[in-house]
Design a protein that fits this description.
heterodimer, A: 270 residues, 12 helices, globular, disordered N terminus, disordered C terminus, B: 350 residues, alpha+beta, Rossmann fold, OB fold (Dihydrolipoamide Acetyltransferase, E2P), 2 domains, 5-stranded antiparallel β-sheet, 9 helices, 38% strand, elongated
């Protein structure tokens, strides 16, 4: 059964070579980033005006987008996984569209709905005098639009994997569905929710297309790290590399967190 | 406190049509093979599944009445349920598991705590309240599940194969605990099982369910002595031979004849215990009136004996000692003489 050959025994050459190429393809650009990084002037680059505010804005908006996704997305995942609502398959398909949609299209769509001339946007503007595009709120909305499906899909998977018989047990012990959700279902899928939240946060942090389309590029209010990187590349490539390093570090930290704290536990959850 | 239920459920090929009545303090065992509709019945009683037709009433309160559109949600029914795999909530301590029903039904923290401690003692889990379910053995977990079901003083207790996930030795001890608590329980109990030993040991009355219907009902002793279907006969280890009585002979539907000790007429069952069948390589001389030449279809060790399945005009199961089996030197397919005394054949009307 178990072949424990020492030097890649068992991997046929036609698979081995493409696999090695794939690894090189994925790893080399990152290695290049590290090699070409302006290590000596790094401190200077990162303390330049604008970098701090872009980083802060990115962290705050990604966290806010994750919070909104949790509040709205976990209940949605429950509905998809547990309820017997009609047209659930259609609902799931609709919800996951942003997963495959080019983010810039999402940004255009948001603009059409929430922009000043938009269906909802014009009403908000006339009734409350609220304008959404090109504000930090717009950043959070754009990131939530793109990132929430990751959370929904992840939590729905966790709910489907969780043993629904525990919910029957709770019902026979006098718990209504809301109590059951709070005291049984949610604690049992907590690792899945956490993993989904981290994925969602990482996706929100890297969001570029929808953000620049719907929220624009105003330093301090809508210029997030990815937007800053893109702009920096045009006028000061060294600054772009420095900013990219920061995002790379945050991504790697997220991956480690995901693997050690949650994915590992989710993998062995009873 | 009493249960009266008329349950009609259609699930694909299975049509469940079961009527059960359980009095105060009575334990009814629902015995049957997998897929017979036992668990469906239990899910309806628990309120987890709405019946297509029928009525469930406990202590005169309708829990389900399809004709009148009554369906009491599961969490509003004062019941306790024990599942096959204990199903203790993995994220809660044992004590919090037992307290769960009390807390959801509004008992205060301190009162719940006291009740839980009392029940942990009663099911011999003192001092284990702080543990996680994963740290309990199978038997301990099932006892905790029993405490969790009974702590709220339910009107109806539902047991869904409570012992079948346990190993043989643990099953003995948990069965003893269960027996003690069922004897003390004032409400009605429905025990679903496919193990006749559980039914015999725990129930006051047994209904045998096959393909969604009751095929036999009675006390455990009646059911085990006089099975009415092949399924029950096999469960209790009897060979069941349907036939027609003529004097002291039963002409079997399958073709053979069996001599019995009493006069019988009309459709009857003849039942033979495996230990009363003797096997010989040559036709035995002397007293037994029942001697048949049969074929060995299969043989499996069964405790200290070997259980031999015999086919022919009178299909039988015979238990012989391992030594005797070795001396006979039988291979599957070999012919063998089987003898049974007429007085060893139980016979009763169909």
């Amino acid at each position: 059964m178990s072949r424990t050959g020492r030097t890649g025994a068992g991997v046929p050459v036609p698979l081995m070579i493409p696999a090695a190429l794939a690894v090189a393809f994925l790893v080399l650009p990152l290695a290049g980033l590290l090699v070409r990084a302006p290590w000596s002037g790094l401190a200077e680059q990162l303390t330049a005006p604008g970098v701090g505010s872009a980083l802060r804005l990115s962290l705050v908006s990604a966290t806010a987008a994750t919070a909104v996704s949790l509040v709205l997305g976990v209940p949605l995942a429950w509905v998809l996984a547990r309820s017997r609502v009609r047209g659930r398959a259609v609902l799931r398909a609709l919800v996951t569209v942003p997963l495959v949609l080019p983010p810039v299209v999402g940004g255009v769509a948001l603009f059409l709905v929430l922009g000043r001339q938009g269906i909802v946007g014009s009403w908000l503007d006339e009734t409350f005098g609220i304008t959404i595009p090109f504000t930090t709120t717009a950043v959070v909305i754009a990131q939530t639009f793109v990132a929430m499906p990751f959370l929904v899909v992840s939590v729905e998977g966790a709910l489907r994997a969780a043993d629904a018989r525990f919910e029957d047990v709770a019902a026979t012990l006098g718990a209504d569905r809301w109590t059951t959700f709070r005291r049984v279902t949610l604690p049992m899928v907590a690792p899945g929710v956490a993993a989904g939240a981290v994925l969602c946060w990482a996706r929100a942090l890297g969001e570029f297309g929808a953000t620049i389309t719907f929220a624009g590029n105003f330093p301090g209010t809508t210029q997030t790290m990815p937007v800053a990187v893109y702009l920096a590349l045009q006028r000061d490539p060294e600054a772009a590399v420095a900013l990219s390093l920061v995002l790379l570090a945050v991504s790697l930290a997220t991956l480690l967190l995901l693997r050690d704290r949650w994915l590992g536990r989710a993998g062995v959850a009873p | 406190m009493s249960l009266s239920a008329r349950v009609r459920v259609r699930r694909g090929m299975l049509h469940v049509e079961l009527d059960v009545e359980v009095a105060d303090g009575e334990v009814l065992a629902v015995l049957g093979p997998n897929g017979a509709g036992k668990s469906t019945l239990l899910r309806v009683l628990a309120g987890l599944l709405a019946p297509d037709a029928g009525r469930v009433e406990v202590d005169g309160v309708p829990w389900d009445d399809v004709a009148r559109g009554v369906h009491l949600a599961s969490h509003r029914r004062p019941l306790g349920m024990v599942f096959q795999d204990a199903l203790l909530f993995p994220h809660l301590s044992v004590a919090d598991n037992v307290a769960f029903g009390l807390r959801t039904r509004g008992t205060g923290r301190a009162a719940a705590r006291a009740a839980v401690d009392g029940w942990l003692t009663r099911v011999e889990l003192d001092g284990l309240g702080g543990r996680r379910p994963a740290e309990l053995s199978g038997g301990q977990a099932q006892r905790a599940a029993l405490a969790r079901a009974l702590v709220g003083d339910p009107a109806l207790l539902l047991l869904d194969e409570p012992l079948s996930a346990l190993d043989a030795r643990t099953r003995l001890t948990v069965r003893a605990v269960l027996r003690r608590h069922l004897a003390a329980f004032a409400g009605s109990t429905v025990l679903v099982t496919h193990d006749p030993v559980d039914a015999m040991a725990l129930a006051d009355r047994v209904v045998v369910v096959e393909e969604g219907r009751v095929v036999q009902a009675g006390t455990p002793v009646e059911v085990s002595r006089r099975p009415r279907t092949d399924y029950v006969a096999r469960l209790v280890g009897l060979s069941l031979l349907p036939g027609t009585g003529q004097g002291r002979t039963v002409r079997l539907d399958g073709g053979g004849e069996v001599a019995v000790a009493e006069e019988v007429t009309g459709p009857v069952f003849a039942a033979v215990r495996p230990e009363s069948v003797a096997l010989y390589l040559a036709r035995p001389e002397g007293s037994p009136r029942n001697v048949w030449l049969l074929r060995l279809a299969g043989a499996v060790p069964h405790g200290t004996t070997v259980r031999c399945e015999l086919e022919g005009a009178v299909p039988l199961v015979a238990d012989v000692t391992a030594t005797a089996f070795a001396e006979l030197g039988l291979a599957p397919g070999a012919e063998v003489w089987a003898a049974v005394k007429a007085s060893e054949v139980a016979v009763y009307a169909r």
